[in-house]
Amino acid sequence: MGYMTLHVNTGVQLFSGERALMYARSRHSTSDFDRSLRQQQIMKAIVTKFMQQGLKPTKIKQLYADYTAMVKTNISLDEMIGLAQYVDNLKNIFSF
Description:
Elements: H1 17-25, H2 32-52, H3 57-70, H4 77-89
């Protein structure tokens, strides 16, 4: 497997799933700390996008189906719904 160049312009981006994964996994930076920050950015963007769409049960079920098709987890659908509701109740979160 060879290397792929990933160029990201400054500012807000709309990534496909594949490009978001490339961005999160990229090792071309100053440190693993930077890679960890990129992974956090991606996760925050996913949560934000999900929360903007609301907590409709059908969307949660579809998200869960998509998630479990790609990630091995022991989180049940009920637990994921509880986590989504918990996150929805968190307002004005700032990270530094």
